[in-house]
Amino acid sequence: MPIGFAKSGAGEYCYSLFAVIAVALLASWIVAVLFAPVIGVTILPKTMKPHGGGHAGPGRFMRLFRAALLFCMRARWLVIALTLGLFAGSLYGYGFIQQQFFPASDRPELVVDLSLPQDSSIFATEHEVERFETLLKDDPNIDRYSLYVGQGAVRFYLPLNVQLSNDYFAQAVIVTKGIAEREVVRARLQKALETEFASLNTRIYPLELGPPVGWPLQYRVSGQTPEGTRDAAFLVAQTIGQNPNTRLVNFDWNEPMKSLRVQVDQDRVRQLGVSSKSLAEALNAVTSGMVVTEVRDSIYLTDLAARATDQQRASVQTLRNLQVALDNGQTIPLSQVATVQYELEPPVIWRRNLLPTITVQADVVPGIEAKTVNKQLAPAIAQLAEKLPEGSTIEAGGTIEESAKGLSSIVAVFPLMIMLMLIILMVQLQSFQKMFLVISVAPLGLIGVVAALLPTGTPMGFVAILGIIALSGMIIRNSVILIDQIDMDMARGLHPWDAVVDATTNRLRPIVLTAAAASLGMIPIASEVFWGPMAYAIIGGLFVATLLTLLFLPALYVAWFHVKEPAKERQIGTPEPTPAVAV
Hints:
Distance between the termini: 31 Å
Number of strands: 15
CATH class of the largest domain: Mainly Alpha
Mean pLDDT: 86
């Protein structure tokens, strides 16, 4: 339910997981209660021989398990304390697991972003793309590639981070011949970009999985003025650059460009009868050009513009000597009514909530997750934010922001999920105390999750969290099976102690087999980039939770309800055989 009703990009991306599991569970329930009995009646014989011919006692494994069960029930407080200690250790170990939003795709494509200074023309961008293309030609590891000048690639892939069209931007999509070849090409191009294209802001990366993020590390710096925002952004970039796990620190805008400022003497132009429109048209005719006619090409009409040469347009003296027409037909140079001088100004200003906002962006070194680096930078960024002038703020974006959106959309549905689960458990168990016992085992599955993720270096991602949510349902199911069997045995007249022992031994096989089936079903996807963390979480969590269900839950049950061991158990040490219960 949290996945299916999550209102976020991550929820939309993973919605198929909810739909498939919901349909599969409903179908499996119908098969279990209707189809399986029909098949049993049809195939199974009318009489069946009991296991062991009905005379042999329990096997060696069952005797060992029964002895371990009795020890846990007798040393109930020790078992409870040891389990809680392991749970506390898992909470501590959880802090050492790297956090991840979604992993990179295992597709063979590579995406290369090339960003020139923001005042660059599209011709300069095209020249740099032609230089870059020479690195791709005749590479045996590359199958094909596409180059986009002045814009990003079209959305050929749902999570693609589509870029805005800008003259100074270009993007390349490279399709390699495999994953191994992709990494070879990536290393070679990365080295070339750092040496031959050092003046450009470049980034090479595989396709993303999940909602598009872009640069993994992003900090939005907002201020009251563009100048103050630039100064604060430099401090943030300096703080990020000091971390050894960051690289390619850059800004979405910050670099000023050279511009010409024409300061018009309004008193002088009014005396001469020159209008601002005449001045603007004269300047545009020299710099940008003016349309003088149209040229027909088949069924199309193309404007033909006239403007000064490149050398004249780049000369301040040419503009100063520009002749401006007066109303009486005479002309005067522009320098008589205006001053022309060079200045520096930002070519673009991004605003957020009407405030100038610069996004400081950075990549992370391979093997380190963005959340790990963000956690390392958090104290320094918080300390820096306190020193900024009033009205200036620093907000984390990128992977941190998108991950928070995805998790918050899931957490918002948690109350409904928990309420429905409690209602179902109350209908089944009809006891608040037993419901508490069933639910108490679910969080303890974190012991196995941490034990599986931490040694293997598997990060805790969004999909792994979904796996933990599903794992809690599996653990609760096994606990319900055991508690329900205890109630059935007590209804047959068994002593509560004997009922716990008998129910646990009889439910051992179905609980272990269902847990083993679920764990084995995770093995084929354990090596997948996307599903691997979820598989590891479920396998490790189910293994430990199964042991807890069979050993910890009986100990907790007898401790909670103050169940005392019968006298015959204390004298003999082993209980008398109880009637077998059909599984």
